[in-house]
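Hi all, posting the design record for the shared folder.

TITLE: backbone redesign
STEP: 1 of 1
STRUCTURE INPUT:
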């Protein structure tokens, strides 16, 4: 007797068969296919999210391998585009999942078109321009997104509910060179993006399966090296009072 691919998830009370059906009918735009994207793409594909749209314009480099789990030395040798390597691998993992790839950057101009007909955006990027574009796209299209940030041994995750008036620009400085969003100059401990992406993917699975009451609305912050774990409540500005 062949068991269901998703039997373990369907047996999990928080998800169940109905939640799994919702996952199979759901669509996600995954922006960035590096450290966070490698993990998130695998988690969502294996979980049975029905459709993934992955966007990234980078090639695989040797320095990526220690934390970007979709890629191999062969990809480095052939200077393979990350989205192509990702699709080749993920298609072999789960044929239930439809995967479209785009070897370009997401911008505020192309973002709304790329985000059409998806349910959620996952931020797997590492620069302020991309995150600003994701935030603007999500607000224009009217869908939530999940922020993920990594630097050194620190990780942060936030479910950004644009329907509730949330915008990451209310909490972080997007300007070039800002401490919150500058490219990592202090290296990355390779366990950190795995945890950040797992937390992002878990919030995505909650949302996509309809378990909205289980979504963590706080900013999750941790420093693995210093053994610090915090959940920070962030107040959304009252935009009506500004008018």
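Okay, here is what came back for every position:
SEQUENCE:
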């Amino acid at each position: 007797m062949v068991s269901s691919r998703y039997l373990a998830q369907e047996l999990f009370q928080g998800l169940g068969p109905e939640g799994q059906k919702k996952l199979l009918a759901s669509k996600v735009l995954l922006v960035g296919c590096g450290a966070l994207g490698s993990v998130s793409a695998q988690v969502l594909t294996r979980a049975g999210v029905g459709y993934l749209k992955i966007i990234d314009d980078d090639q695989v480099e040797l320095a990526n391998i220690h934390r970007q789990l979709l890629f191999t030395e062969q990809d480095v040798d052939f200077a393979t585009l990350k989205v192509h390597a990702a699709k080749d691998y993920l298609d072999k993992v789960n044929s239930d999942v439809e995967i479209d790839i785009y070897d370009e950057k997401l911008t505020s101009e192309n973002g709304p078109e790329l985000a059409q007909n998806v349910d959620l955006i996952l931020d797997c990027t590492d620069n302020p321009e991309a995150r600003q574009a994701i935030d603007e796209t999500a607000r224009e299209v009217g869908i939530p997104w999940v922020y993920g940030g990594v630097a050194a041994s620190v990780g942060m995750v936030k479910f950004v509910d644009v329907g509730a008036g949330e915008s990451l620009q209310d909490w972080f400085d997007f300007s070039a060179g800002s401490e919150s969003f500058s490219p990592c100059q202090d290296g990355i401990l390779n366990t950190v993006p795995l945890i950040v992406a797992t937390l992002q993917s878990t919030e995505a699975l909650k949302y996509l399966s309809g378990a909205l009451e289980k979504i963590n609305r706080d900013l999750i912050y941790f420093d693995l090296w210093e053994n610090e774990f915090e959940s920070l409540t962030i107040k959304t500005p009252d935009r009506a009072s500004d008018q």
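COMMENT: The CA atoms of residues 8 and 181 lie 38 Å apart.
Let me know if anyone wants the other runs.
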